[in-house]
Structures are given as C-alpha cells and as structure tokens.
Amino acid sequence: MGIPRRPFNRRPKFLSTLTDNITNWVGQAQAYGQTYTNPIVFGQVMSHNDANWSVFWSLGSARTNPPTTSSLYTGKHVGQDSSQTRADELIGLIIIESGNGTIDNLEYRIAIGGDIVRGVTNSPPYN
Questions:
Q1: Please, are residues 73 and 29 in contact by the beta-carbon 8 Å criterion?
Q2: Distance from first CA to last CA of the chain, Å, rounded?
Q3: What is the pLDDT of residues 22-74, one digit of tens each?
C-alpha cells in the first residue's frame, strides 16, 4: 500500500483558539481533505505566541478514542498546568492512512499502538 495521493488534510495548518486541560477536552472539529479508512493524526504547535508551553492533541468522538473516519478534533492542551490560559497558536497537521508504504524509497509502518503509558497513580506505582 502506498501513501494516499494527498496525505494531508486540506487545511494542514490552523489557528488553535481554544486551550484544553485535564478537565476540558473540547478541541476544534476538523474536516478531512480526502477519505481515510484508518486515519493516523500527527500534529505540532508551530508558533510560540505564548511564553507558556502547550502541546498538540487529537481525539475522535471521546477523549479516550482516537480519530476516526467521521470524527476528528484537534487542538492544544496544557494538562494539569495551574495556568490554563494560552494565546492562540498555529497548529500543523499530518494525516496519513494506517498501514505500510514507501516515501522517497523509505519504508514505513504507521499504526496506533496500545495504551501502555503508566505513572505514579497506577497500580503498582511506576517511576
């Protein structure tokens, strides 16, 4: 399977005007620029309009669901930071079909892995 003809969302960059946090996962709805069977979404905060940090995130129909063919929300997130207000930031997106392929003679495999990240609040507690 090769890469789709246009692997990017038709709007590969957008202005993130909302800032989400540990209790608020709203994001901004995005439209795909083409049809996907199993989309994988990568993103990056590309501007530095606020001195405080923020990170890219994406979801499908709920916080625990990855993006699907019919549901994609993206944005910037500040987790548990006590300062939850941020300036608008430019977000870049790459959306590509899950599977194997080749780009410029480099083979790749893209898939969603298991939910394996654990922390100090898990049992047993992890460092």
A1: yes
A2: 40
A3: 999 999 999 988 899 999 999 999 999 999 999 999 999 998 899 999 999 99
Give which of 39, 56, 13 is closest to 110, Cα–Cα: 39
Q: Does residue 88 sit in helix, strand or coil?
A: coil
Q: What's the rounded Cα separation, in Å, for the pair 11 and 54?
A: 21
In the chain the beta strands, taken as DSSP E runs, fall at 13-16, 19-20, 28-29, 39-45, 55-59, 73-77, 89-97, 99-103, 106-110
Residue with tokens 């001195």: 51
Tokens of 38: 């199993």
pTM exceeds cut of 0.90: no
Tokens of 68: 């699907």
Q: Is the peptide bond before 7 cis (omega within 30 degrees of 0)?
A: no
Burial class (CB in 10 A: 0-12, 13-18, 19+), 83: exposed
Cα separation, 63 vs 79, in Å, equals 13
State how far the Cα of 16 lies from the Cα of 11, in Å rounded to an integer: 13
